Amino acid sequence: MPVRIVENKENKTVTAFLSGEIDHHGAKKMREEIDRAIDENLPSLLVLDFGEVSFMDSSGIGLVMGRYKKMRDLDGRVFVQNPSMHIKKVMRLAGLDKLAGIGDSSRKGVQP
Amino acid sequence: MPVRIVENKENKTVTAFLSGEIDHHGAKKMREEIDRAIDENLPSLLVLDFGEVSFMDSSGIGLVMGRYKKMRDLDGRVFVQNPSMHIKKVMRLAGLDKLAGIGDSSRKGVQP
Amino acid sequence: MKVLNEMKITFPSKSVNEGYARLAVAAFASQLDPPVDELADVKTAVSEAVTNCIVHAYPDKVGKIEICARIFENGEFYVKVKDYGCGIEDVKKAMEPLFTTCKNGERAGLGFAVMESFMDKLSVRSKVGRGTCVVMRKKFSQRG
Amino acid sequence: MKVLNEMKITFPSKSVNEGYARLAVAAFASQLDPPVDELADVKTAVSEAVTNCIVHAYPDKVGKIEICARIFENGEFYVKVKDYGCGIEDVKKAMEPLFTTCKNGERAGLGFAVMESFMDKLSVRSKVGRGTCVVMRKKFSQRG
Ligand SMILES: Nc1ncnc2c1ncn2[C@@H]1O[C@H](COP(=O)(O)OP(=O)(O)O)[C@@H](O)[C@H]1O
Ligand SMILES: Nc1ncnc2c1ncn2[C@@H]1O[C@H](COP(=O)(O)OP(=O)(O)O)[C@@H](O)[C@H]1O
């Protein structure tokens, strides 16, 4: 399972634990599963957990950007959790750090 | 370092901790280091520890066979320690289990 | 500069091969004993180049992708990713960050930006209707 | 039987490429999601075939090694290892367990025995002075 979704109705939070390699081949299924959870829960915070992601190319940026736009339409926020050095590097190149909060799990509250 | 050698003069034992992938390319250096330790210590027991070996093809069989012959000339024994399932499978194919003792570290005393 | 070692791979432009291609190149580059993060850079850059062939070069068919990797005497790593697909009309424009011809929002337009920033050198040659050839080079830092 | 996917690699007969070759084949075979131990079987068999090209086919020079791997519709995995080296005079004898022409005691004479026992099918064609072609097939067991 490349995505495990945890829904917290009280906090209006959806957390998506991604795992494995995020490339063009695998990103589609991840996007779809996350979008289904957003549509069902209409959360105010989407947490994308990259702790178990071993590889990511710019397809992962498309994934985060698309979810950012979707959450913005819901007046919600996106938080990127537990990215490795490699993933941070790819995200920084895209300026994603300016759109979504990025940090480790202990700083979950950071605003976008 | 593909081989770490531990010498125990009291027990007249040399233990070689092998690591990484054992193939034709890498086996030569391993053979040489083990043989140097045998020549220096003239042990009565040579323990080959495969605990950190992630891959082995028939070059590893050549390695064990050669050491077995060398130790036999010294009236010594060879014990193969901590082989993975994969390594056991390769060794069984060669009938190595009939020449050298094979087991995990808790059964170190087994005779060849 | 003398080539110490060279490998070539060919495979069809199916997305399932993206993972295979970057792993095969990384396995070869490992001979230079690169730092883990720099090997990840190479994997990422190769993943971008191969994905471009699959998504852009052959949009509605399966075509051939060729990769050639070399190790030079001075320790430099070279990798070429080549397709025989539609080609790029304006290479300079295509290489601008955020530029993409992809309409469905799936691509971020950052493929070339990743290749450029993660490798030391990037060169792109393309001919409309003939195909595209991307060459990248990187010198790994010494370990230890 | 329909071929779903195919890759080809070529590289020179240098021993440093043994690791590269089996990793590249394993990365491709991974698409079939094989059990870990059966993937190790494939790696081991490929390592034997490639080592034979390096040690026996081109004993005193560096020659070309070609690998082709295929995934068939029925889930069967196919891998061909080919060289243009010295060839084998008596293939049947060469395939006998413990038979080796290697004098220095370095080789155990078990390369073909490993290929035969770790893969489902093995076929060897060879022509003296022209080269050798080893084809192996394996059907992985279903997981889960
Ligand atoms: N191999 C190729 N064949 C044809 N067109 C390509 C190729 N590679 C890139 N392009 C073109 O260049 C544009 C920019 O590529 P890139 O920076 O990788 O971003 P992206 O792949 O996200 O669109 C693509 O949208 C495409 O139009
Ligand atoms: N690709 C090859 N080219 C030429 N001779 C080969 C090739 N592969 C195998 N042989 C011959 O077959 C013999 C047996 O091979 P094998 O069972 O792999 O054992 P080993 O490699 O340990 O000698 C070799 O010793 C060699 O004489």
Please outline what is shown here.
The complex is a heterotetramer, with 2 copies of chain A (112 residues) and 2 copies of chain C (144 residues). Chain A has 112 residues and is α/β, with parallel strands linked by helices.
Descriptive report:
- The complex is a heterotetramer, with two copies of chain A (112 residues) and two copies of chain C (144 residues).
- With 112 residues, chain A is of the alpha/beta class.
- Chain A has a single domain, classed as STAS domain (Transcription Regulator spoIIAA, 2-Layer Sandwich), CATH 3.30.750.24.
- In chain A, 38% of the residues lie in helices and 32% in strands.
- Chain A has three helices and five strands.
- Chain A has a five-stranded mixed beta sheet with strand order 1-2-3-4-5.
- In chain A, helix 1 packs parallel to helix 2.
- The longest helix of chain A has 18 residues, at 24-41.
- The radius of gyration of chain A is 12 Å and the shape is globular.
- Chain C has 144 residues and is of the alpha+beta class.
- Chain C has a single domain, classed as 2-Layer Sandwich (Heat Shock Protein 90), CATH 3.30.565.
- Chain C is built from four helices and five strands.
- A five-stranded antiparallel beta sheet of chain C has the order 1-2-3-5-4, with helices on one face.
- In chain C, helix 1 runs antiparallel to helix 2.
- The longest helix of chain C has 22 residues, at 36-57.
- The two termini of chain C are 26 Å apart.
- The mean pLDDT of chain C is 96.
- The chains are: A alpha/beta (112), C alpha+beta (144).
- Chains in contact: A-C, B-D, C-D.
- At the A-C interface, helix 1, helix 2 and helix 3 of A face helix 1, helix 2 and helix 4 of C.
- Strand 1 of chain C pairs antiparallel with strand 1 of chain D.
- The structure holds adenosine-5'-diphosphate (2 copies).
- One adenosine-5'-diphosphate is lined by residues 48, 52-53, 56-57, 83, 85-88, 94, 99-102, 107-112, 132 of chain D.
- One adenosine-5'-diphosphate (ADP) binds next to helix 2 and helix 4 of chain D.
